[in-house]
Specification:
- This protein is α/β, with parallel strands linked by helices and 180 residues long.
- It has one domain.
- It contains six helices and five strands, in the order βαβαβααβαβα.
- The chain has a five-stranded parallel sheet with strand order 3-2-1-4-5, with helices on both faces.
- α5 links the parallel β4 and β5.
């Protein structure tokens, strides 16, 4: 998956609003392919709205994006015992680990040089937890993780601006019903 001039990167995408800035920003240094994989998003109509928004954005900006299956039942099995956990705690760690493990496995299988995630664009997400789970997933899949805090250097503000420019739907919660 490596181009002649840039290393390849599989970018886990949580939503179009977080992806809109990063797909453009990262293409300066990487040959980027997105991976929309979010079995945590509920209810199913919300998942469909976010999926459609990502598909529309990918067409509009001519981005390569792969789409993982929506297996909400499996995700719920992993996280349901932690339903009473506070937002940002153990349940979120399991959710990050689940999505990043899947991304790392795909990156290794398809021969990408690196994988990363848009999750750290959000000021509501624990970047240290995200990066820990990214490193763990990378070690398990034997692929390199691009560790980052994409909200820094005004990354979050840039994503908000780009959302307005593209008229993107911005959701009011992370995705799972626990966070709603």
């Amino acid at each position: 998956m490596t181009s002649k001039s840039k290393p390849s990167l599989l970018l886990h995408i949580c939503c179009a609003p977080c992806a809109v800035y990063l797909l453009d920003h990262l293409k300066e240094s990487y040959d980027v392919t997105g991976f929309f994989y979010n079995p945590n998003i509920e209810p199913p109509r919300e998942y469909q709205s976010r999926l459609q928004e990502m598909q529309n954005l990918a067409r509009k900006i001519n981005a390569r994006v792969l789409y993982g299956e929506y297996d909400n039942e499996a995700w719920r099995t992993h996280t349901a015992p932690l339903a009473d956990e506070p937002e940002g705690g153990a349940r979120c760690r399991i959710c990050f680990a689940h999505r990043l493990s899947r991304t790392a496995a795909l990156a290794a299988l398809e021969g990408f040089d690196f994988f990363a995630t848009t999750l750290s664009v959000s000021p509501r997400k624990n970047v240290h937890m995200i990066n820990e789970e990214g490193r763990r997933a990378a070690a398990d899949a034997d692929v390199s993780f691009l560790e980052a805090d994409f909200k820094k250097k005004n990354g979050f503000l840039k994503s908000v601006r780009r959302c307005k420019e593209h008229g993107l739907y911005r959701q009011s919660y992370c995705g799972c019903l626990f966070s709603r």
